[in-house]
């Protein structure tokens, strides 16, 4: 069960859970409607092709239609993907949020980024991001120091544009302005990333942050202070 030992985060968690649940329901219903619409069109085309083929063979007009059970709206293994950085929030807000979502029946994925130091971001992780209906980047002061986190948020933006994945950013101890313009605690890590990875790759991460900040998110200070 989710712990109640972190009252500082409780208001934001409650707001995040309510917003996530609402968005999940809307996303699921929308995906289900789009799937049924697309599936109906495909079935009509398939039926016409089957009937035409059968008529050419023996003149029959009574070809039963086949049904599909691969409903993508119901088949997603991951509903929410949490992207975060740092042991400071792992045992506090992120842990609380993760277990609250699990307790609410939401299939939630969180990556243990600390255990993958020095590794390349893998295809399974990217698949989990693409499968998820909602991506939740949790921006902390240390978030930008991890290239993994920046690659995750960039992949979320890509999925948002290609498959209409929803992104709900949460801001803990940074402001949206700091994340958008890479100032404050984000300035030094981005400068270091450019030296290590090159300007072109890092610019893609900068652009991803700007895209995410444009979206409606939740700020700890504002939520906690009412």
From TrEMBL:
Reading the lineage from the top rank, the first entry is: Eukaryota
Show the catalytic activity: NAD(+) + H2O = ADP-D-ribose + nicotinamide + H(+)
Keywords from UniProt, A to Z, are: Hydrolase, Membrane, NAD, Transmembrane, Transmembrane helix
TM stretches of this protein: 12-31
Please give the biological process terms from Gene Ontology that the record holds.
Answer: signal transduction
- Record keywords: Transmembrane included? yes
List every stretch annotated Disordered: 39-73
Which lineage ranks, top first, belong to the organism behind this chain? Answer: Eukaryota, Viridiplantae, Streptophyta, Embryophyta, Tracheophyta
Any one GO molecular function term: NAD+ nucleosidase activity, cyclic ADP-ribose generating
For bias kind Polar residues, which ranges apply? 39-48
EC no.?
3.2.2.6
> Which organism is this entry from?
Punica granatum (Pomegranate)
Its recorded name reads ADP-ribosyl cyclase/cyclic ADP-ribose hydrolase
Give residue ranges for domain TIR: 76-213
């Amino acid at each position: 069960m989710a712990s109640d030992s972190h009252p500082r985060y409780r208001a934001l968690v409650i707001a995040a859970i309510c917003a996530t649940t609402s968005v999940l329901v809307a996303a699921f219903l929308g995906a289900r409607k789009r799937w049924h619409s697309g599936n109906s069109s495909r079935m009509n085309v398939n039926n016409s092709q089957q009937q035409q083929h059968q008529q050419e063979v023996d003149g029959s007009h009574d070809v039963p239609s086949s049904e599909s059970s691969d409903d993508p709206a119901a088949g997603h293994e991951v509903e929410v993907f949490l992207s975060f950085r740092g042991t400071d929030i792992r045992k506090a807000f992120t842990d609380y949020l993760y277990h609250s979502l699990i307790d609410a029946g939401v299939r939630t994925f969180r990556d243990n980024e600390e255990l993958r130091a020095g590794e390349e971001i893998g295809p399974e992780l990217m698949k989990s991001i693409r499968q998820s209906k909602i991506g939740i980047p949790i921006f902390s002061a240390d978030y930008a120091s991890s290239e993994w986190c920046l690659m995750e948020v960039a992949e979320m933006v890509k999925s948002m544009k290609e498959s209409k994945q929803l992104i709900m950013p949460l801001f803990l101890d940074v402001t949206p302005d700091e994340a958008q313009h890479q100032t404050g605690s984000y300035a030094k890590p981005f400068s270091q990333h450019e030296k290590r990875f090159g300007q072109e790759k890092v610019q893609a991460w900068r652009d991803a942050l700007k895209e995410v900040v444009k979206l409606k998110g939740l700020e700890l200070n504002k939520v906690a202070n009412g």
